[in-house]
Amino acid sequence: MTDLTLTMKYRPNQRVDMSPITCDKLAGLELADIAAIELQNGKRKLRVDELFSISGSDAWNIHIDNSFAKLDYIGHGLEGGKIRVTGDVGAYLAMEMRSGEVTVSGDAGIYAACQMKNGFLHVIGNVGDFLAGALSGNKKGLQGGTVIISGNAGDRVGDHMRRGMIMIEGNAGDYCGARMTAGTIAVMGKTGRNIGYGMRRGTLLLWQQPKVPATFGDCGTHTFSFLPMLFDAMSKFDSKFSDSSKHFNRVHRYGGDIAEMGRGEILVQVENA
Questions:
Q1: In a domain, 32, yes or no
Q2: What is the largest CA-CA distance in the chain?
Q3: What is the pLDDT of residue 75?
Q4: Per-residue pLDDT tens for 19-41?
């Protein structure tokens, strides 16, 4: 069987809710049934076949082609299968995903991997604010799984993150790891202001020296035996993190946020280690 491919015919002016288009929801449906599914578009609804041309039949492997930045909720609540997107996507990408894979060859909007529970997300581009964060009023951001960003991320990466791994090849904005409870965020590029704000536990692994807040204590340089194991886990994914030349096991450690539990840590690569 060939991938179920949805190719966008035109770009509507209003945003489109793509949450009905997931592998588990479409599995077992005939193409005519898929074509008749209605997608919320502003105040009106559009049939799938009005917005997309449909080809292929394998609903466990969905390809959304010619996508653009007003397609929201792609992969929402996904429970298995693979969704591949060619083009940009909107907000809430892979929100509350439970299993499966989502890959985007383009940029993503705000709240990508929001409250994601498990699975794998790879954005081959940039993402907006609140990557792997929690919705306003919620205290559970990323709860499991792996997120890889090949470009840059906006502010508040991993806000209220509880577990899982985020790997960012580019830069991250302000408040990276804010209110983090557990998990690992690795950033190869620069980070913005107030890194680790309100952090309770977890690890921020950085390739470049950040501006460390006053509420983090300087713990000196250390050689940690767990880092090679962490890098070994990262090497299984197709990213810059799999390059063994980037690996190191000697870091400068900062502990905090002491305004909270103070059990979190910022680990910064020591040059020439």
A1: no
A2: 63
A3: 98
A4: 999 999 999 999 999 999 999 99
